[in-house]
Design brief:
It is a single chain. With about 190 residues, the chain is an all-alpha fold. Helix content is about 60%, strand content about 0%. The chain is built from six helices and no strands. The protein has helices at about 1-50, 60-75, 90-100, 130-150, 160-175, 185-190. It starts with a helix and ends with a helix.
Length: about 190
């Protein structure tokens, strides 16, 4: 009988131990959660303090130029896929899928003298002419030299910083409507590569 009660005590202690281990795990999770909330609270306080400081720094000329391009771009109407019938390649996947499945044959309107970048389509759904695509290329080169002058020129398109990227996207959209006829600026990215 003594062995039986010892076994019961051991079993009871094991159960209590498991219950305590579960409580410890839950408490540790609560501690982690509270630590995370504390860090977020501290971060918000830091942001508020930084925002309340009246630090005047000279304006970065490149940032000022980006603001001007952004403001000018805001005056141009937004182009939406729903407003256009035909093949415009709003998404890169549309162009890639058609190009690969048709082995290079596309359904886009391609008049004589059309440029080689067949995804660059005008408002009427025609591939931009070789002359227009050449102007686009020249504009892109000019933008790159502008970035170079401000110390934002990338060594390759994939290494471009976000400010420079935004500047190029907005500038190309402002100059050529063709780059507004797509989603996520993929046509500018593709053309720049």
């Amino acid at each position: 009988m003594h062995a039986n009660s010892s076994e019961n005590e051991v079993s009871t202690l094991k159960n209590e131990n498991r219950a305590l281990e579960q409580k410890i795990i839950k408490l540790e999770q609560q501690v982690v959660s509270l630590e995370g909330k504390l860090e977020i609270s501290r971060y918000k306080q830091l942001l508020e303090r930084i925002g309340s400081l009246s630090i005047t720094t000279p304006a970065d000329p490149f940032t000022e130029m980006l603001k001007m391009v952004r403001e000018a771009n805001g005056q141009i109407p937004v182009y939406r896929e729903d407003d256009y019938d035909g093949v415009y390649y709003w998404f890169k996947s549309d162009w890639t899928k058609e190009y690969l499945s048709g082995h290079g044959i596309l359904t886009v309107k391609c008049p004589d003298g059309a440029g080689s970048a067949s995804y660059i389509v005008d408002e009427d759904g025609f591939v931009a002419s070789e002359a227009i695509q050449q102007k686009m290329c020249e504009t892109l080169h000019t933008l790159w030299f502008t970035l170079l002058g401000f110390g934002h020129a990338p060594t390759s398109w994939t290494k471009i910083d976000i400010l420079a990227l935004k500047f190029v996207w907005l500038s190309m959209q402002k100059t050529f409507v063709h780059f507004r006829l797509c989603n996520s600026d993929w046509k500018t990215d593709q053309f720049a590569i």
